[in-house]
Write a structure and sequence with these properties.
heterodimer; A: alpha/beta; 4-stranded antiparallel sheet; globular; B: alpha+beta; 13 strands
C-alpha cells in the first residue's frame, strides 16, 4: 500500500461538516494581525478604553466575597442577580424584561447557535438582511439552514423587499423559520432601521406569522446617544431578543443573553445545559458586580466617544482618498462602514494586494450566503487609532486606484 | 549533539499562516531531539536578535516573499550563520518562476511552454492586445499563476481564452508578474531531495477539483501515494528531472520539485520549492515517511546538513 491517509476519520464526519475546509481567505488574515498592517478588518472592541483599576477591584471583590460560589457550577439559565442587571442594560435602551425572561449565553453568538439549533432542520429557510452578520450565517449554516437575503439600504432592511421575499416563499408553499435582523448600526452595513421601518417589518411579520430574531449588540453605541425602539418592544411575543456585553463591556467575558417567550426560553435553557451546563460563574459574578457597583453607562459613553472620533476619521479619509465610483454608508453608531466598489472590482480577489500594501479589510462576499457582495467590503473603525485609520484608508485607496487602472487596461475601458 | 537553533517562521508574506504551522512543527521536532530551540518571527528585531543570539544554526521555515526569495538567505550569509536550505543565489533563481523555467529549458528539463506578462506591460504598453497571441502559442486550457510565491495562491486553470483576462486580474493581486503556462494534463507529483538523496515520488490526487489551497491544507481533501503509482522508468524520469533541476539551480540541503506526468509518462517540471512546507499535510514529510524517516528524523537531517556546510563558502552547492 502506497496510500497516505492524512485523515482516518473522514468517512465518519457528519454530513453537515462536509463544507468545512481550510480557507485561503482565513489563512491570508494571518498577516492582518501583524503590527505593520493597519487592520480595518476585525470588529474588535477597543478594550484598552476600559477602566482596568475598577475591573481589578471588581474581580478582587468577587473572589474575596463570593469565591466559593463564583468558582462553582451555576444555573443553566444564568446567575439570577446578573440577569437582573442585564434587564437594566436593556432598560437603558427602553426594552422591558424580567430577569426570568433571560437566558445567559456564551456571548450573543451562542444565543444565535441555540436559536438555530432549536428552530432549524436541514433545508429550513431563514430570512436575513443582505449583507448580514457572518457569525450568524455560520451558525445557521451549521444546522444546514438556507439563508434568503432581504435587501437593505441606508435605512436598514427594506420592508418591501421583506414582503416580496415572504410572498415568494409562500408562492412555493414554504415559509421562513424566522427573520434574523440587526436593526441598530448593523454588522456589516452600519445602517439603522427607522421607526417607520420597524413598524412595517413588525406588521409584515404579524400578517405572515413570521418569528423575528432581533440581535442588538450595538444599540447603546449610537454616537449621539439616540435610542431606537427595539422590535421586541413593538411585538414582545413575536421577537426573540439577543443581547451581549461584548460591545458595552468586554468580549473577553463571553456574556450574552437571549430573551424569549416562556416556552421558547424553557427549551433554550435545556439546550444551553446540553451544550455546556452553564455559563462561567466567575465571569457572571464579575459582570454582575460591574453593573452593580460601577458607573457602567459612563464606560459606554467612553466607548461611544472613541468610536465616533474614529468613525469620523475613517469617513473623512474615505471622502478625500477613495476613487470615484466608490460609495459607503455613513453610520450613526456601531463599529462598521460598508463600502461599495465600482462594478468589476472584486474585493475578495483584491485582498492579497491590500495585505501586501499592509492594510486589511473584510471582503463583502462573506456576509452573504448566496455568493453576492463581490464588489463590497466592510471597514471597521473600532480598534486602530484615528491616525492609523487614515493611513490604512490611504493605503487601500492606492490599491483601489491601481486596480481600477488595471481593469481599465484589461477590459479596454480607457481610450 | 544538541545545538542552539533559531527556527524562523511567520513573516509578512501571504503564506504566513502556512509558515507558522511549518515552523511550529519543526521547532517541536527539534526540541524532541534535544536541541535548544528559539522561535523567531520576521520583524525589525530579527537581525539584532540573530547577531546577539549565540545560535549554531538557523532553520528556515519561511514560505513566500522575503523568506524564500534570497532575502533572508543573503542576510544570514552576511551575519555568518549557517542556515537550512539553498543559498541566496539558488533561492533567488528558484523563487522567480520565469527565470527558473528558462533555466530548466536551457538545461534540457521539460517544462510547459509559457508566457510571462508583467502588470506594467498590461497597464502601460497595451499588452492586452497580445493576449490572442498568447492563446495562439499556448493553446487552451492554460494555467495562470503569479510568477512568485507558493501554496497555489492566485493560481487559476483557464479553460477558454475568454476567461484569461479575469484570471490575470486575479493573479495580479498576488504579484506584479504573471505566468501563463500551457496546461499539461496528467498526474501531479512531487520529488523531494534531502541532502542530495532523492526521496520517493509523491502522487497527488485531490478528491475534487484542482490541488488548490483548500485541497493542500484540509486533512483528507487530497489522496496521496508514495511512491506514486507509476511505472519504474517513469519514476526514474521524475527523479532525473528533479535532480537536474536541483543541480541547475545549485540547490543544497532540501528542495522539492513539483511536476506533472503526462499520459505518455513524461514529467513536466513546474517549479522548485526551496523551502518546502513542513505542515501535517505537506509533501516533503510524506516523502520522508515513505523512506521510513520520522518527522524529527527529517528535520534533524536537514539541520545536520546545514551545520555540515557551515564551513563551505557561500554559493558552494552540493551536487546530488
Amino acid at each position: 500500500m502506497t496510500e497516505i491517509n492524512l485523515d482516518r476519520y473522514v468517512a465518519r464526519y457528519a454530513s453537515r461538516t462536509h463544507g468545512m475546509n481550510t480557507s485561503e481567505i482565513r489563512a491570508l488574515f494571518a498577516v492582518a494581525n501583524r503590527p505593520e498592517v493597519v487592520s480595518l478588518a476585525g470588529g474588535m472592541p477597543y478594550t484598552a478604553a476600559l477602566d482596568f483599576d475598577a475591573l481589578a477591584t471588581v474581580t478582587q471583590e468577587v473572589i474575596r466575597d463570593s469565591g466559593p460560589a463564583a468558582m462553582q457550577y451555576g444555573e443553566g439559565q444564568g446567575l439570577p442577580s446578573l440577569r437582573q442587571q442585564l434587564t437594566e442594560v436593556m432598560a437603558a435602551e427602553g426594552v422591558r424584561a424580567h430577569a426570568d425572561d433571560l437566558v445567559v449565553t456564551t456571548g450573543g453568538q451562542q444565543a444565535l447557535d441555540l436559536v438555530a439549533k432549536l428552530f432549524c432542520d436541514p433545508g429550513d429557510i431563514v430570512l436575513a438582511e443582505g449583507p448580514s452578520y457572518v457569525g450568524a450565517l455560520g451558525a445557521f449554516a451549521s444546522y444546514q439552514a438556507s439563508v434568503v437575503h432581504v435587501a437593505m439600504d441606508d435605512e436598514g432592511m427594506d420592508p418591501a423587499a421583506l414582503q416580496a421575499a415572504v410572498q415568494r416563499l409562500a408562492a412555493t408553499g414554504r415559509s421562513a423559520k424566522f427573520l434574523y435582523t440587526i436593526p441598530n448600526h448593523q454588522n456589516p452595513a452600519g445602517s439603522s432601521m427607522s421607526l417607520e421601518r420597524r413598524e412595517q417589518v413588525v406588521a409584515i411579520a404579524e400578517s405572515h406569522d413570521l418569528l423575528i430574531v432581533e440581535d442588538n449588540p450595538y444599540g447603546l453605541l449610537d454616537f449621539k446617544g439616540e435610542l431606537r425602539p427595539a422590535l421586541r418592544s413593538l411585538a414582545p411575543e413575536r421577537v426573540i431578543y439577543v443581547g451581549t456585553l461584548s460591545k458595552v463591556l468586554s468580549p473577553g467575558l463571553r456574556i450574552g443573553w437571549v430573551t424569549a417567550a416562556e416556552p421558547v426560553r424553557h427549551k433554550l435553557v435545556l439546550l444551553k445545559e446540553a451544550a455546556d451546563l452553564c455559563q462561567s460563574n466567575l465571569t457572571q459574578h464579575v459582570a454582575e458586580r460591574w453593573f452593580a457597583t460601577q458607573p457602567w453607562l459612563r464606560q459606554i459613553e467612553t466607548f461611544r466617544d472613541v468610536y465616533r472620533r474614529r468613525c469620523n476619521a475613517l469617513l473623512d479619509e474615505l471622502a478625500v482618498s477613495f476613487p470615484a465610483g466608490c460609495s459607503w454608508t455613513t453610520p450613526t453608531g456601531g463599529l462598521f462602514v460598508w463600502v461599495r466598489l465600482p462594478d468589476g472590482v472584486d474585493a475578495r480577489q483584491l485582498l492579497p494586494k491590500a495585505l501586501s500594501a499592509r492594510v486589511a479589510y473584510v471582503p463583502g462576499a462573506g456576509f452573504y450566503a448566496d455568493g453576492s457582495g463581490a464588489a463590497e467590503l466592510r471597514l471597521s473603525f473600532c480598534f486602530p487609532p484615528a491616525d492609523r485609520i487614515r493611513e490604512g484608508v490611504r493605503r487601500l485607496a492606492e490599491v483601489l486606484h491601481a486596480e481600477i487602472q488595471l481593469l481599465d487596461a484589461i477590459y479596454g475601458r480607457r481610450p | 549533539m544538541p545545538v542552539r537553533v533559531a527556527v524562523l517562521a511567520g513573516g509578512l508574506s501571504l503564506e504566513r499562516d502556512v509558515s507558522l504551522r511549518s515552523g511550529h512543527r519543526v521547532a517541536e521536532a527539534l526540541e524532541d531531539r534535544g536541541h535548544s530551540v528559539t522561535r523567531l518571527d520576521l520583524d525589525d528585531q530579527l537581525v539584532p536578535g540573530l547577531v546577539n543570539g549565540d545560535y549554531d544554526a538557523v532553520y528556515l521555515a519561511l514560505h513566500g516573499k522575503a523568506g524564500e526569495d534570497g532575502t533572508i538567505q543573503g542576510l544570514l550569509e552576511l551575519i555568518g550563520l549557517p542556515y537550512t536550505g539553498p543559498d541566496a543565489v539558488a533561492s533567488g533563481l528558484a523563487w522567480d518562476k520565469v527565470v527558473a523555467k528558462g533555466m530548466f529549458r536551457r538545461g534540457g528539463v521539460l517544462t510547459p511552454d509559457w508566457v510571462a506578462l508583467s502588470i506594467d506591460a498590461i497597464r502601460d504598453m497595451g499588452a492586452v492586445r497580445a493576449l490572442d497571441r498568447v492563446v495562439d502559442r499556448l493553446g487552451t486550457p492554460v494555467v495562470v499563476k503569479p510568477a512568485h510565491g507558493g501554496a497555489a495562491l492566485g493560481v487559476h486553470l483557464v479553460p477558454d481564452a475568454g476567461d484569461l483576462p479575469a484570471a490575470l486580474v486575479a493573479a495580479y493581486s498576488y504579484d506584479d508578474v504573471v505566468l501563463i503556462e500551457r496546461f499539461v494534463e496528467g498526474m501531479e507529483v512531487a520529488v523531494s531531495i534531502v541532502g542530495g538523496e532523492i526521496l520517493p515520488v509523491v502522487e497527488i490526487a485531490p478528491k475534487t477539483g484542482p490541488y488548490d489551497f483548500a485541497a493542500r491544507y484540509t486533512h483528507g481533501a487530497t489522496q496521496f501515494h508514495a511512491p506514486a503509482r507509476l511505472p519504474q522508468d517513469t519514476l526514474a524520469a521524475c527523479a532525473t528531472a528533479g535532480e537536474t533541476a536541483w543541480r541547475l539551480a545549485g540547490c543544497r540541503h532540501v528542495t522539492r520539485a513539483d511536476m506533472i506526468v503526462d499520459a505518455s509518462g513524461r514529467p513536466w517540471l513546474l517549479e522548485l520549492d526551496t523551502c518546502p512546507g513542513m505542515t501535517e499535510t505537506s509533501l516533503l514529510p510524506m516523502a520522508a515517511a515513505a523512506c521510513g524517516w520520522s518527522f524529527p528524523d527529517l528535520c534533524e537531517r536537514i539541520l545536520q546538513d546545514a551545520l555540515a556546510s557551515a564551513d563551505l563558502p557561500a554559493g558552494t552547492a552540493a551536487a546530488p
